[in-house]
Every structure is written in C-alpha cells, then in structure tokens.
Design goal:
Elements (H helix, E strand, L loop, with lengths): L1 E2 L6 E2 L16 H6 L2 H20 L3 H14 L1 E6 L1 H9 L8 H6 L8 H15 L6 E7 L11 E5 L1 H4 L3 E4 L3 H7 L13 E3 L3 H9 L10 H5 L13 E5 L7 E7 L9 H16 L3 E5 L1
Parallel strand pairs: 9-10
Antiparallel strand pairs: 1-2, 3-4, 3-5, 4-8, 5-9, 6-7, 6-8
Helix pairs in contact: 2-9, 3-9, 4-11
Length: 286
C-alpha cells in the first residue's frame, strides 16, 4: 500500500486522496508509472536507444525528435461528429469511456468478442482503476487515430499534465505482445508520466529515426482507418473531462465533406460554430 506524504497513513493504490487527512495523492496511474523500478527500467531503455543512435550517426536527428515530442506533442482523442457535437453542446456533458457509457446505459455493449477483449485488457493492466481512465494518443499533428472517428479533440496541456500517463502502444497489442496474464507481473519500462513522454518515445522509436528524418509526426503516429494497422503511443487520462479541457478540434477538410452523410456534414458545420463560440481553435486535416 502507499503512504500519505502528509500524515503517513496507509492508503489504497487506487486512491487519489488520503483516507485520513484528505491530502491530494495525485492521479493513481501516475503514481504507478513513477515507481522506482519503472523509472529505472525506462531510463535503461532510453540510454540504450541513444547509444544505438550514436553508433548509427543519427544522434543529432534523434535529439531533434526528442525535442519535438517534449515541446510540441499533444494528447488527442478521436470521436464521431455526433459525439463531439454533444460534448460541445452542453456545459454539463462529460466525456465518458466505454465502461462508463455501458454502466450508465447510455450506449450498447459491443459484440461479445470485442467486449471481452476490451474489458480483459483493461483489467490486466489496471484492475479496479480501469473504469476511471480515458484513452487518447500522442500526436504531433491534428489528425489522430481516424480509425476511432473523423473528428479529433486536442486537449489542453494543463488537462493532462498531472493526470495522464503514456503506454508504448495500444493496450490490447501490449498485453498480447507480452502475453500478460492476471497472475503475471507487468513488464517494466514501457510507460511513464506526461512530463517524461519524450523519453518513452525515444526508447520506442529511435530505430526509426534516420539522419534525414523530418516527418516526426508520421514516425510517432500512423492511422489509415484500419484499427489493426494503427501505430501510436497510448495515453491514459485519469478522471473525467468536459469541453473546457479542449484546446482544439480538428475536422476533415471541407473538400472531403462530400463523401460524408448529410447528418455528418450538418454536424461538422455546427461543431465549427460551437468551437468559435467557446474560443476553441478549429483546424482541418487532409
């Protein structure tokens, strides 16, 4: 169990407040990834990646990639036009994850195979904490994972700074690749907190950086509409968020609207108007 830094009382690993003095313990997912053995394992992977890049003569390019992640990467969540419109339309609307939506009967449960995969994956990694986490991706542009929706919400840095963690890849792929079972310890060095996201990106992607690599955005995230082919660093955000957490919404360019259904086109126009009303940047992607 964890100890409260204020009163030294023992508290649960899933708690964000001390049971005794109510001191803020921070987001529990962030405390998990900041355990000493996790930090040391990631540091070893990072140093090995930097050393390998130096041997290949691409250390300078890798340093530029790391600086880009540190300074420019953001958290992005893709969704449908309908869902985004609803979130922007009400000051009381909260963004909810799959488990929260199914538990509150606001959406249907996915097909059995997909429901089992999602719930078992979340449980393997996060146990009881799973229902409290929202999922996103790390991006250097405004397109995001189009396989999850053509509209994207880019979150304010302050929204994720203290309550987001990053995992090297999609949770399902991570659990499958490492053959993680409920009774197994989790592999270490593959996730970290938001301020250290660049270290994880370097550890994962250094081998893809060449001396002439300029398109860091494509190295960091790939999505062509097929979830099975998505490649990205996954973000886990503790707690809820509303429209105030959104810094920017990204929509398809208008030349691509003709291929959309009439309702979607109408919703995109409304989303543009909403963004302007709430002082949210509205951008487009090809």
């Amino acid at each position: 169990m964890d100890s409260c830094p204020e009163c030294n009382a023992l508290t649960a690993w899933t708690a964000d407040r001390c049971f005794v003095c109510h001191s803020d313990l921070g987001a529990p997912n962030r405390r998990l990834v900041n355990q000493q053995h996790e930090r040391e394992a990631l540091e070893q992977r990072y140093q090995a990646a930097v050393a390998e890049a130096e041997q290949r003569g691409v250390k300078q390019a890798l340093a530029a990639f790391e600086a880009s992640i540190t300074n420019d990467s953001r958290a992005i969540i893709n969704t449908s036009a309908y869902f985004l419109y609803g979130l922007l339309d009400s000051e009381n609307q909260l963004y909810a994850n799959y488990r929260q939506q199914t538990a509150s009967a606001t959406r249907k449960v996915a097909e059995l195979i997909n429901d089992r995969q999602r719930c078992s994956t979340e449980s393997e990694l996060f146990g009881t904490l799973a229902p409290e986490l929202l999922y996103g991706a790390l991006t250097l542009d405004n397109k995001g994972l189009v396989s999850y929706g053509k509209c994207a919400m880019i979150l304010k840095d302050i929204t994720v700074r203290r309550k987001a963690t990053v995992l090297e890849e999609n949770s399902y792929d991570f659990v499958k690749r490492h053959d993680i079972r409920a009774f197994d310890p989790l592999p270490v060095g593959y996730w970290t907190d938001w301020p250290n996201r660049a270290q994880l990106a370097v550890a994962k992607l250094a081998t893809r950086i060449q001396s002439d690599t300029k398109d860091f955005a494509s190295v960091l995230l790939f999505s062509n509409g097929d979830r099975a082919q998505d490649q990205f660093i996954e973000i886990h955000i503790y707690g809820s968020l509303d429209r105030q957490a959104i810094a920017e919404v990204a929509l398809p360019t208008k030349k691509n609207w003709e291929s959309l259904e009439f309702l979607d086109r109408a919703l995109l126009e409304k989303i543009e108007a909403q963004a302007k009303c709430y002082d949210i940047t509205c951008s487009n992607y090809d």
